[in-house]
User: What shape does this take?
Amino acid sequence: MEHPHASTRLDARDVDALIDMGVLPPAAGALVSAPPITPSRLARGVDLLLLLLSAGTGLSGVVFFFAYNWADMHRFGKLGLIQGLLLAALATAILARTRATLASQIGLFCASVFVGVFFATFGQIYQTGADAWQLFVAWAALITPWVILSRTQSQWVLWITLVQAGCWLLWTQHLHPIHDLRPEWVSAALTTLLLALIAARDLLIERRNVAWLRPMWGRTILVAAATLQSVGMFAFDAIEADVSFTSFLGLVFYPASAAAISWWVWHHDRDVPSIAIVGCGAIAAGLSILLRITTDSFDIGIIFLVGFYLVVAFSLLVAGLRHLNMLERLEEEFPHGS
Amino acid sequence: MGHEHVTLDELVSHGLIAHEDLEGVEVALEGVEHTPIYMQIISGVGGLFASLFFISFIVCLGMEASWGISAAGGAALLASALFMRRTQFSGTSPLAQALISARLTGVGLILVSLGAMSESPSLVALACIALCAILYPLDPDRLMRFIATCAAYIAGAALIALNVSPGAQDVPAYVVFAAASLSSALVLGRVGVSPALERTLEPLGYASACVALVCVSISMFDGSTVHPAVLRALLVLPMLILVARAWTRGDAQKEPLIWASGAVAFLALLTNTGLLAALLTMLLGASSHRRALIAIGTASLLPFLSHYYYWLDVSLLAKSVALMTTSAFFFALRAVIRARPWMRSTLDAAEAT
Assistant: This one.
């Protein structure tokens, strides 16, 4: 009589895992191979690669061209050429929007980059004396309507990068030297913006079913940026140990934002990679506390202590992530506790 | 041999499990966890940093009089951690992370002690290569196999730098690059590698691809004694392997590969070796449908592009023209490929779904 499970199919990863667990002998690995590359997958992969490479090298070529500051070219020619390219990119975005979404998105992305190239060339020609932060802020402000209309995550990533760069340059060139503003305020403001964007993204998916926001990489970038920013400030304040309200803000903001992100991403999507990023941030924060405690009385034993801390912290993190991964998988297989 | 799936019945018929054990396999299958790549990266980074601190601690303790004991301790630590990993704990156990640190610390201790006792860096490099070669098949963790491969390449480069080409630091980079790029193309491009062996060697393939990119960046430093054309010629080798492999396949699969390889060869003439290496990595990823490889190539594009920007031998105008010509070439190539009947039908089928 045939066993009820005899027809259960295992793929290469299942077999590898069962060999690792000692359930199957290593010889079982020879019976199964990784999925073959189908002609259609290969064709689509090469097609996408060529499109991205074409856009990437073309865009870089334009940036290199204007960085060259071609003296023989009249300033109107330079600016006119950039505007021509900008219009061409926009035309591509509009004309290709109905049947080739990716080409349209790449066109609009190129147009957004050309706005920055235009500003840089304008500043190069006329030597306006403007600070660098103004370029980034104006660039971000001007492309905002396109970003909103684009319905593309890559446009949003560009916009956020410009806003972040503009704000930090504003602090470096203006707010810190003139108003003596502490970096904690900039960090807190930008992290709050990132948290708001994460929340807005998830609510738009949940309530309006916005499909273009669904790919997770956009949120992963937001979580990584928020974590990096808040952990950096936490480590700075933990090691500096300056007793002030702003230092307190820096120290409190990271744990609060980390807890908020973890709760939110788990509650909404069971997003384990985002929790992994927050966890790595927590290990870095813990390390900064350990360094602060041991700075005044350095001893060889501290090196061992740090090693021990890293083993324990990473073991807990990886074990926790595995547990969450398992929970996520179980919820997928048995929704609503069925 | 080597199908995409295998049934439990087939495992029984091959005598790999007993019929009465099927229930147990089914239960174990429910508990199977596939470790995502980001968790492996976190695990590896944690293990490496922790072991570096442990080794530093032991070195700082001052073991001058007892390096032999230290080496023996390292060997015992390595052997016991490996034994425990193979027999007691699976890769998903909470203790697996500690065992990674223990194994790395053990290897580090053996090498540091050997270096202190012999005062011969070449011997340490040789020992490192030998240890990596022994541990690769013994260690069940893909992550450890990746680290072992990287360590073996580094040791190989050190060995060449110390004995073959003292004073010319880029020569080891070229040699290691040639070996690494060839290995990655053979393993990840599935050339002459059986499916079972391919899965065993996959970490070696990924590590080789990463090492090849690092070697290219080293060889691009100022003061290189070898002409860039040599490196570009070396870069063409894995490409030839890809094309050769394509000839053994059906028309629909070989054509995009050959076109894309031609495009990369064209780029080799125009831009710098770093960009070429990054593109080749992406091409290898696209042709073998390995997203991680495409991601590695894409991530390395930015530093190589920055290097190209600040490369003073060629004016920005010339570089700009090279990049824009390449862009036009890629665009035209894509248009030609898309007009081919097999591509048209593939894209139509994709749009229909």
